[in-house]
Structures are given as C-alpha cells and as structure tokens.
Amino acid sequence: MRTLILFVATSAIFGQQLAEPTIAHVLSAGRLQAIIGIPGAARFSTEQPTTRYTGIVTASNAQVSLLLAPDTATWRSPQASETIQLLTRPRAAAISPNGSWFAIATADHLLTTYHAAIAQHTYTPSDLDTSADAIAIADNGTLLVSNNSDTSYVTPQAVATTFPTSVECPLFAPGSDIALASSTTAHAIVQIAPNSGVAIIATLPDITAPTSLALSADASTLWLSHEASPTLTALPLRSGQLHTYDISPGRLIPTGTPGVFLWATNTLLDTTRTPPETLLIAPEAAQQ
C-alpha cells in the first residue's frame, strides 16, 4: 500500500511570515496607507502611520515615492528614506520613472531639483524662476517645466531651451529624455526634445483633452484618460492609431508597478490585461 503525503504551503516558513507584495502607497486623510497583494486580489493595509502629508508622487517603474508636507519632502524607497526641509510650501512635484530624481516647485515659484539615491541626496538648484503648472523629470535628471505661456526643457547641465507653447500632463518614458505631453491648444499629443522642438505625434479630433497620461508597462503605448469621461484611450507610439475602451471614469496615477494605476479611491486599473480592466481594492482585512 502506498502512502501519499501532501505538503501544504502556508504563509509561515521556518517561523517567518511572508510579506505580501506592495502595489502602491496612497494617502488617506493625509496618512500613508499601503495597497498590498496583487491586482485582482489587492487590499488596503492595516498600518496606521502618524505623519500627515499633503501629497504623494510615485515613480512609474519603481516602488519609490515622494511624500509632500507643508515644509518637507520625503523621498521614500523600500530600503531607505530621506527628508529634506523646504523653505516654502510645495506647489507641484514630479519623480522620474526609476525614482532616482525628483523635482519640486515651491509656492514662491522657485523650481528646485534633487537627485535621490539610497540614503543620500545631491542637491542641484535650478536656474528657473517661473510658475510651474506642470513638471516632469527624466531618469537622467532632464527636466520639463510648463506654465500657461511656455515650456522649458532643461538638461542635467542646467542648459535650458524654451518653447512658446504650454503643455499638460508631461512625462518621460523610462530611460528616455524625450518628453511626451498633451497640448490643449493643438488638441494633440506632442513630444518635446531640444533638437526637434515640440512635434505633434497624434491629433485628438474626437477625444476630450486628457487630464492624465501614462505609459504601458513596456512603454510602447501611451494611455489617455479624462477623469470625467467614461473612456480610456490607447495610443500605440509606433502606429499612432487610437483605440478607445469603455470604462468607468478615472485618472491614471502611477503605483510603482508598471502598467498598473490607481484609477479611483478604491479601484486599480490594470493595463497589462487585454482589454484593460478595473479592479476593486478590498478594505482593510478584519483581524482573525
């Protein structure tokens, strides 16, 4: 007679509890809260941090965030965190796709940039003194700043090129120093580089001007959404052919997990699925 022995995997191995993966961090009433698990089976964590923040910006390709408070900014990764003092209240902020660089526009309109590394920051002051309605920063520290009249492209060596046009929702792809953005004036998606200037890559004839843009996990598709419109639009960057999906209204907020976005307060959008799918986030699990 044979005896069949089944080994059942549990969450405890050799007395240690396996940590659930973190999808993202969000703010709830000013407090940091984690979304843990996997898309489709995600829930809010039960941690209760005491620090209150006014904003959070998360890298699109790394679990790195910039946490904003009235007079501080905290660069936070799974391995380390570093807090810097701000002279005035932050007005806008951006973080690079890999989380190594971030930029902050303060309330007095002086734009400052920082390079972030594990447990270390190298401060690089910008020579720009202008209101920043939209900002983005690349993995190499290239900066894009736009207001209601012009857009400045600034290299890591602080060489600035200014174009007489404004853009919204700017971003950089991982490893790229060419910016993508929405132009309400041209009703188009544009790319921005110092050599080629502002170039239209796709017009949006029948689409409401997007209020958020994001790249797919492989950076081959640009996603467009308007927080009041029940549609999600895909723009493959090679073909330029727009595809629209019917979906509940939402906003593309990076989570640090490529292709997965915080879509609404309790909803994730997983663009790695075909078609893209919204997934509810479960509330905090009751203690057993």
Per the principal axes of the C-alpha atoms, what is the gross shape?
Answer: globular
Q: Could you please say which CATH topology of the domain at 53-203 applies here?
A: Methylamine Dehydrogenase, Chain H
Total of helices: 0
> Whole-number average pLDDT?
83
How many strands, which pairing sense, and closed or not: the largest β-sheet? 4 strands, antiparallel
Oligomer kind: single chain
Q: Per CATH, which architecture of the domain at 53-203?
A: 7 Propeller
Supply Rg: 20 Å
The CATH class of the domain at 53-203 is identified as Mainly Beta
Number of strands: 29
Written as H for each helix and E for each strand, in order along the chain, the element string is EEEEEEEEEEEEEEEEEEEEEEEEEEEEE
- Unreliable residue runs: 1-17
What percent strand?
over 45%
What percent of the residues sit in helical stretches (DSSP H or I)? under 10%
Give the termini distance in whole angstroms: 40 Å
- The strand line-up of the biggest sheet is 6-7-8-9
Secondary structure class reads: mainly beta
CATH superfamily of the domain at 53-203: YVTN repeat-like/Quinoprotein amine dehydrogenase
Explained architecture:
- 0% of the residues lie in helices and 50% in strands.
- The protein has a domain at 53-203: Methylamine Dehydrogenase, Chain H (7 Propeller), CATH 2.130.10.
- The protein is built from no helices and 29 strands.
- The protein is mainly beta and 288 residues long.
- The strands form 8 sheets. The protein has a 4-stranded antiparallel beta sheet with strand order 6-7-8-9, with no helix packed on it.
- Residues 1-17 have low confidence and may be disordered.
- β4 and β5 (41-44) form a beta hairpin.
